[in-house]
């Protein structure tokens, strides 16, 4: 007997306000696929209590994701990519949502994004959400 595997969507977030749109995207996928929604933040290092501002933003993301019915996971690890890989395998994740790679950031940050993409098993669907344009058109009434 081969039971069909339950769909599980994982949204990878950082302690930034724009992670809200990633959660929204993951939420819409989870509704469409009748999937479990998981949100994961991996803090590089040994503690999530590194910066007061980032802790506040992280709390906002946790609260927002909780209102969406997501299972929230916050982990610390010196190797972010391997932490993500272990999580995906352990939880049986079927789809990963993350933001696009930084284009003007330091090479170190881009390398982390690349490492995360490389460690996600091939059978897992990956959705890379493009950045929104910073400039918005204004509607003048």
Q: Could you say what the CATH topology is called? A: Rossmann fold
Low-confidence stretches: 133-141
> From the 3D coordinates, which CATH architecture would you assign?
3-Layer(aba) Sandwich
Total discrete domains: 1
Q: What class do helices, strands and sheet pairing give?
A: alpha/beta
Query: What value does the Rg take, in angstroms?
Result: 16 Å
The sequence of SSEs as H and E is EHEHEHEHE
How big a fraction of the residues is strand?
Answer: 15-25%
Number of helices: 4
- For CATH, the homologous superfamily is named as HUPs
CATH C-level name: Alpha Beta
The main sheet comes to:
5 strands, parallel
Q: Report, as a whole number of angstroms, the end-to-end distance.
A: 62 Å
Strand line-up across the major sheet: 3-2-1-4-5
Q: What's the total number of strands?
A: 5
Overall 3D geometry? globular
The chain-level mean pLDDT equals: 84
Estimated helix fraction = 25-40%
